Structures are given as structure tokens and as C-alpha cells.
Amino acid sequence: MQSSFAGNRASYLILSVALLIPLARFYWPAGDGLDVTGHPVGRDFINMWVAPQLAFGGALSDLFDLQAYHTAIGRLFGHSLPFHNWSYPPTTLLISWPLTLLSYFWALAFWTLGAFAVFAAIVLSQVAPEQRRFALLALSLAPACLINTIGGQNGFLTAALMIGAVLSIDRRPILAGFLFGILTFKPHLGLVVPFALLALGAWRVIIVAFITAILFAAASIAVLGVDAWQLFFRETGSYQLVIITSFDGFYTCMMASVLAAARTFGLSYQAALAIQIAVAVFVLVTACWAIRQTSDPVWRIAILATATPLVTPYAFNYDLTAVAAVLVWRLAGVLPSDRRWDFTCLLAWLAPTAMMPLNVVGLGLTPFLQGAIFWMVVATIRSETATSRDPAPAP
Q: In the predicted model, what is the mean pLDDT of residues 83-110?
């Protein structure tokens, strides 16, 4: 049993290392701060570094003008760059502003390594000391984490906020509410949160999260003006809707939502949206039931982490870092490991990278795997709940 468990863990690491080869070929630095495709090393981090310079430098409107923004990122980086767009609410600018105090590559290093360190520390806090070395290695090599590392994305930060908040719900509700409030800088990743908190009756958390979110938005208005939000809703909102409805471009191969999967199979936007809504409603109801059945914060995190990519229509492979944490906990013995789910969990582990070529050829299978992992979590909780309610055998 132990040897098969060790072999199972080794397969995760070996396949993760194998995935580094195609990733390296695609993202390999080619000189002058660019990779082989002409993007800046760190890819999407260019948004986090350029946008606050424009917003706090008197050029806020350039964030919401695609051509002006394209010109600005090339000017500030020092090279003409491929197309990027700013897609975040104004509160994100308050988070990313300190990064502008550093040069691009120092800021990228601080952003990536610093956020990963916080994320890893939170995840490892639930792992037995003798398992932490393996857990850290697995977390470092998890495909979802590799995508964040090479892509300069914010998955480490969002996962740290969500996991840290759930761990704090019972013992530190004010901290939990504060972390959930800050998570609103990516609101589509918090769609399950209010329903889960209502199901738990976590009123202090809800109140603090609401107040934090309001103050967070108010701070952005005080610093940047109300125009920032008006432009965000009018320009960014409409452009993001076009992105989802048109479903055309490189970004589609990185989308992990039910809606995106349906589009890869050739369904219309309306049909895909209908499927997305149906799945989201079922998952929300199921998640709210499941989260009421357990007081274990790790299981609660597993529920939220696996439910979120199924509920939001706007999920990407770099948003799956919290799911990677759940799978690492399973490998490290924090969560029980039913061998019937081993192969499915391995496929879900590889999905953030494997989904890119699969989406291109019209096989958006990632939500099926995410759905299976969600059901594994719910089924395990249901089984443990039923067992705990069985009467003890008579003496």
C-alpha cells in the first residue's frame, strides 16, 4: 500500500517535470526581456506593472483605450509588445501600485516569489511537518502554479486570500471577512463565497467582508476618482462581454469554465450560457449543502476551490491554484485518499497545462475533470457524515 502511494506521488512529480519541456519552449526568454513569442518575460504581469503607472500618472483613460494602452505598455517596457488589455476593477490598481516602485524584472520577481511564498505558507500550515518538504515540491511543480509563475498571473494571491479566509472563518472572523473583501479585486472568483457564508450563518464574516469591499472601492474612488469605475463598467465590461461571446483568440485555450468548454465543442454562446447557468445552480446548491456538513476548514476550502471554476463563466487555468492546493493536501495525507479517484485526480492535476492543446482541437474537457473532483469532495463528505450519524454497535 505504501509503495503504491509513493509511486502515485512520484507520477505527479514526474509528469509535472515533463510538462516543463513544452512550457519552456513556448515561454523561453529570447533576449531584451522578451520570450520566444515576443511577449515580455512574465507575460501578463506587464498589466500589473504598467496600469498603475498610467492611472497614477495622469493617464487613467489610457487603461480603457485599447490602442492607447497598447502604445503605453510598449513605451514603458521599452519594446513594442503584442496586444494586452486591462481587465481588472480599479481596486486592483491599489494592490499593484507598490510594484511600480521597482523596475519591471525586480517587480516581477517580488510579485511571483512573494505571492507564492505566502500561498505556500498558508497551504503548508495544514500539512504535517514530515510531509512539508514533499508538499512544497509538489506545489512548486503543480501545472497550475507553473502557469502562474511563467505567466506572471495573480493565482497565488487569489488562492492565498481564499484559503486564508476560509481557515479563519471560525477562529478569526474579522480577518476572514477582510480577506474575502480584498478578494473582490477578482469578483468572478468569489461567486460561491456569499452563498457559502450564508449557508454557514457566518454573519460576522459577511458583515466584515461587505464593509471591506465597500471601503476598498471607496478608497479607489478617493484616489482615482469615480471616472475609473465609470470607465471600467462602460469600456472594460463591454469588452469582456465581447471576449466571452466571440470566443476567438489565444485566450480561449486557457479558459477552464463550463461555458468555454461548451464553446470548444461548437455550441453557440446562448446554448453554452444556458449550460453554464444550469451547472452553476446545481453546484451552488450542492456546495452550500456540503459546506454545512463539515466544520473542518480544509474540507470547506476543498468545496469552495472545486466549486468556483464550475460556477464562474470566466475561469482560466491560472485560476486553478486553489484546486492544486487541494490535490497537494490529498497527496500529503491531509485529506483522505480513495484510490478509486487516483487517475481522475492525476488528470485534474495536469489539466491546467494539458487543456491548452485540447481546447485548440475542440476538446474542452477540463470542467468535466473539475466536476469530478468537486463530486469526489462532496461524496467523501457525505460518506463521512453518514458514518458519523450511524449509531454505535450495541456492546
A: 95
